Amino acid sequence: MTYRLGVDVGGTFTDILLIDEATGTTYRAKTSSTPQDQSVGVLRGIERVCADAGVPMPEITEVFHGTTVATNAILEGKGARVGLVTTEGFRQVLQIARSFVPGGLAGWIIWPKPEPLAALEDTVEVRGRIAADGGVVTELDEADVRAKLATLRTAGIEALSVSLINSYANPDHERRVAELAEQELPGVPVSLSSSVLPELREYERTVTTVANAAVQPQVARYVANLADKLGGSGVDGRLCILRSDGGLVSAESAADNPVNLLLSGPAGGVTGATWVAEQAGYPDFLTFDMGGTSTDVALVQGLTPRVGRETTVGDLTVRATSVDVRTVGAGGGSIAHVPPLTQALRVGPQSAGASPGPAAYAAGGTEPTVTDANVVLGYLPTELAGGEIALDRDAACAAVKSIADATGLDSVEAAAAGIVDIVNENMFGALRLVSVQQGFDPRDFALVAFGGAGPLHANALGRLTGAWPVIIPPSPGVLCAYGDATTNLRDEAVRTLVRRFAELDDASVKSLLTELAGKVAGTLAEQGVPEEEQRIVYSADLRYHGQGFEIPVTVDADGFGDDGKAGLDALRAAFDTEHERLFSFVLDAEHELVTLRATAHGPRPRVAAAALPEGGADASAARTAETTIWVTGAEVEAGVYDRSRLLAGNVVAGPAIVTEMDSTTLVLPGHAATVHPSGSLLIRPIEEN
């Protein structure tokens, strides 16, 4: 017997999912996260799930891990002290940044500009210059480099980043600076922009490299510490870390390039949703991950998540490939309030967090939250997780009554319904960002809802978007860990060109694609993936000549021959189609190829999908109780169902509540949830069932 393990570390809980590779049987565990050393909570969770499953730890062959170490280091400002080496004349590249201020009109008046990760006093200039075509304009002055590195050593930097102008075209000067740094700054990790992001644009390349350096020491320590703890507990399986783009890399590669891990957590959820939707037979879907503080949404088409070229964490935006996830400050802990000036009900983005939490948790919280509203409306039973968690309905009613009093509503239930309606609209707005704003009709997609609070609001979001069916995965609260365990190894290589199509032919592009493919294939081969089991896909960043920014387009490498321009013509047409979809027009202008990219994918893990026994449409065997809920301004009777008793084919007609260990699903009147053989609940309007 062999097992693979998915581990997802969140701010409050660490989720562990153990999968029997032969049968698809899963075992899950939740344990409190340990922010001071996440590996402690991870190991505790692994020991617990193995004990519950009766699985010896040495039988775990692979550990796939989504981590927030890099994310937290940025958000909490606890990254390493970074020194930056730039080309002479570019010392203030991070301070100048881009001329963009978030917010509305006159936002600059109150906007506190974030401090760069590398302070100006820790930034040095060195003499030497590379041209845009890769030629050497001025030779590198090594004596000057040594002197500047000595200055940084005296300052006490903990990590070094090197970003010299045009190094994407010729990395020789950066590599020589790194060699000198080994002598002048022994033991200090070095990040080179020509390795981290060998692409055009000095600011984006520099800020990304500095971010990589800032989190590298912490990530390296964490990965090494976790590997040691796993080995000491008898787990000799391979340790891999989830990247922001939803792929896996070896622990060693993750420690070298941690900037690619900044959205590791949300990417796991999208990957897990993709696995679940594939089993249910829906390749096109929206994801909806609602937690305690925020909601993450994304769009997946053809079982392939849309990937963006930027990653944003807090005030920091870096140029790193990541799943295109949008976040809104709406979660179970979001606080409802009525500003005195407007007297209009608002929900979030402030959150009650885990401590004291919602009033219903009876842990000292008094402010009304979304969770309290769901308790008042009867959507959340007063006992969760088989009776392990008790909710105080009286405390929830007292908290929500303050909203009823402030708004003049005639009942606490009406106030609670208003809170839920507003938070649903906020999340609907986020879903529109990844669908309508990107040129997609949400009615053409299913909706996969997960996270602790997602299934409670999913049916309502289905009505707002018109996305059917709404898919509720098994164990929705630990889906991110499932995603970690069911994804594949991945690596990416890029080359910046900035060439007009008139300057290119198929043969030259094909040669570059072959070179990039060889690089990524070699990386995966070193990680134990034979080349014959790899799949390589290509993309290009294109623009009309004169435009400032590019659009990524998939490249069909087979269409590029040894002569002619048929491949370029197809690429031109694909770009025009995408440009028209995004902006509703095309230009009669020359096309320009800015960047080529090759991505190697390892094989998908061979994990058998779980299959529920057939049970027919009658779900009465899983019905455990009756309860009263508030819907559309009135009380109605609803059935309560135990999800663990549901069988394939069972139909749960709304109004109904489906309970399980880590989440609660609400089925609204006029809708029904059908149990798919893979274990997912498929919610649709009754006329569509």
Automatic annotation (TrEMBL):
Concerning InterPro entries, the annotation shows: ACX-like_C, ATPase_NBD, Hydant_A_N, Hydantoinase_A, Oxoprolinase-like
All copies of domain Hydantoinase A/oxoprolinase, residue ranges: 205-491
Can you give the residue ranges of the Acetophenone carboxylase-like C-terminal domain? 508-674
Domain Hydantoinase/oxoprolinase N-terminal: start-end pairs: 4-184
List the PANTHER family hit by this protein, alphabetically: 5-OXOPROLINASE RELATED, HYPOTHETICAL 5-OXOPROLINASE (EUROFUNG)-RELATED
According to UniProt, the name of this protein is: Hydantoinase/oxoprolinase family protein
Q: Which organism is it from?
A: Actinophytocola glycyrrhizae
